[in-house]
Amino acid sequence: MSPIDKVSNLKIPQHVAIIMDGNGRWAIGRGLPRLAGHRAGTENLRRIITASVEFGIRHLTIYAFSTENWGRPREEVDGLMRILEDVIDRELAELNKEGVRLRHIGRLERLDPKIQEKVLEAIDLTKNNDRLNLHVAFNYGGRDEIVCAIQKILRDAVSPEAVTAELVSKYLFTAGIPDPDLIIRTSGELRISNFLIWQAAYSEWYITPTYWPDFDKGEYLKALEAFNKRDRRYGGLSENAKE
Ligand code: IPE
Ligand code: IPE
Ligand code: MG
């Protein structure tokens, strides 16, 4: 059966979020510099975006650079910034054709003004697309997002009684985006690494030892199949346990 035949039998999650991890180890294992791993990871991302469009996923969030990744050597940080610029230059027209709407979560302010401008242009160019919403978490941190939300809530002088989970969600970078149904982490690490810590409250996790550059469409499909076998109870009981 081809991947697309298999997928037609599956319940497709509305929102998939991916921690694209393992680029560095992928490269080192091949005797290459870490940045070669990031380049390979970016090529893979292109394939996974196309697969997401084919699978009918509505929201895809990708963790590309965390607020903690600034702590890496200067050369790697600069390389990652260059890769972001190159991806926008190279891929934007094609993504736009595929109906991808690009959005950013995180803080743009700390990025080079030239990159900020490119990101904003990409968001503007694709704003009327509606096949796949691609949320790029770049200079994103879950704690930073919550701190930022609290600051905004206080600035708006919201009364304590009005603060509800719904209200907090509206003050996050992800306002209006449904919570992720499925979070995939490649490279086998069993941690959240400051990704969507509020939104992941009831997400299903799929962790694979595969490094991100090798996470292909077949692996993606395996993650979707695993998701289909989950019993999401949200603290209640499963449908068949209620009688
Ligand atoms: C993920 O790959 C990409 C970023 C964090 C930017 P890593 O660079 O973390 O790869 P490993 O975990 O060192 O192998
Ligand atoms: C998480 O991976 C961040 C991204 C994939 C962008 P890290 O490699 O930075 O996470 P830790 O350091 O292993 O927790
Ligand atoms: Mg890593």
Structure characterization notes:
The chain has 243 residues and is an alpha/beta fold. It has a single domain (11-141, 179-226), classed as 3-Layer(aba) Sandwich (Undecaprenyl pyrophosphate synthetase), CATH 3.40.1180. Helices cover 43% and strands 15% of the residues. The protein contains 8 helices and 6 strands. Strands 3-4-2-1-5-6 form a 6-stranded parallel β-sheet, sandwiched between helices. The protein is globular, with a radius of gyration of 18 Å.
Secondary structure blueprint with pairings:
Blueprint: H1 3-8, E1 15-19, H2 23-28, H3 34-55, E2 59-66, H4 74-97, E3 100-105, H5 113-125, E4 132-140, H6 142-155, H7 165-171, E5 182-185, E6 204-207, H8 217-228
Parallel strand pairs: 1-2, 1-5, 2-4, 3-4, 5-6
The structure holds 3-methylbut-3-enyl trihydrogen diphosphate (IPE) (2 copies) and magnesium ion.
Labels describing this entry:
6-stranded parallel sheet, 6 strands, Undecaprenyl pyrophosphate synthetase, alpha/beta, 243 residues, binds 3-methylbut-3-enyl trihydrogen diphosphate, 8 helices, single chain, 15% strand, binds magnesium ion
**Total count of strands:** 6
The ordered H/E elements are HEHHEHEHEHHEEH
Structural class: alpha/beta
- Please state the average pLDDT score: 96
What CATH architecture do you see?
3-Layer(aba) Sandwich
CATH first level: Alpha Beta
